[in-house]
Amino acid sequence: MASTITADQIEQLAVQLPLQEQMRIVARITQRLSELLLSQMDREERERKEYAQRIEAFLKMSDEGAAETISAVDSAEDIRQLRDERMLRL
Fold this sequence. Notes:
This protein is mainly alpha-helical. Helices cover 86% and strands 0% of the residues. The chain has helices at 7-14, 19-72, 75-89. The longest helix has 54 residues, at 19-72. The model has no long low-confidence stretch (mean pLDDT 88).
């Protein structure tokens, strides 16, 4: 079974290296972290764009549905029917 190395253990080993080797390690770690950060940012941006596209599609469908409903509704006629129904109940 492989043992887990801690950051403290790595630091203890790193201080034993010559300065040039320590700088090389720092450069590698920095490069790796930069790549990971850029990858994370790209994924988040892609997710934001996909979400915005889904919202836009939903709003478009809502507008189309509302337009169909509005054109199919005759408010004056609906009010007349309600009034007539109430009159019949009286």
